[in-house]
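Bug report

Summary: structure tokens for RpiR family transcriptional regulator differ between web form and batch submission.
Environment: batch mode, default settings.
Steps: 1) Submit the sequence below via batch. 2) Compare with the web form result.

Sequence submitted:
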Amino acid sequence: MDSKLSEAEAYLWKYITKHMNDIPNLSIVKLSELANVSTSTIVRTMKKKGYEGFTSFKHHLKEQASSTINFAKVDRVDEEIRRSILKNEQEVVRTINMLDTGIIEDAIQKIGSSQRIILFARAFSELIAEEMKIKFQLAGKYCELHTDPNIIKTMSTRLSKSDTVIFVSLNGETEELVVAAKNCYKEEITTILITANNDSRLTDLCELSLIGFKSEISFFPDYEVRSRLPLSVIARILLDSYAIRVSRNKEDS
């Protein structure tokens, strides 16, 4: 997760996201003038966002500009719509690039050896968990989904070591999920986390963490309804990989 931005850094990042297409052609001095912030603020912001500096950030944007998305068939694409499309592409591509195949393999093996899969999710993440539950069941794996806060906390105290718990949480800080993860940790229950926050309590508590990329851009700034696209990408890759492994094992037997 990014380090917390100061007020000036948050203002700068908001400016950058609104003028993303212009940034690759600006020098750090020019950006400093346009955004009315110091060059040191720019450098600090870039580092907090995971880049070595402003030049590194510009290189990243230029690489993205070579994407295969083609707007040629649209006569006029509103800039905000274009930004929305590229935001979603960024979340998918960077999430895939961040995935560790070794962790995916470990997760598949844990799932395969478990008697039950227990899914815990809240709010909009419930939709992804519901799809996962159905796919696990179609693959012949016993799976339950719990979304009620009280049931989640209670259920987490009644698990056995033959179970595997999968948490689906965008920020990894939902209180009832954290309580459940602590209960699992105490009893040495296998836990897998699907999230977009590498620096959360759930990440610290879970045995395996599959982490995606969450864009800073939100088109619903007044509400906590950020995109769960990174979680959906991870869930689908995990389920597809598991289904492939199950099918292969059947062929070999």
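Above is the batch result. After comparison, the two runs are identical; trailing whitespace caused the diff. The chain is about 55% helix and 10% strand. The beta strands are 116-121, 143-146, 163-168, 190-195, 208-211.
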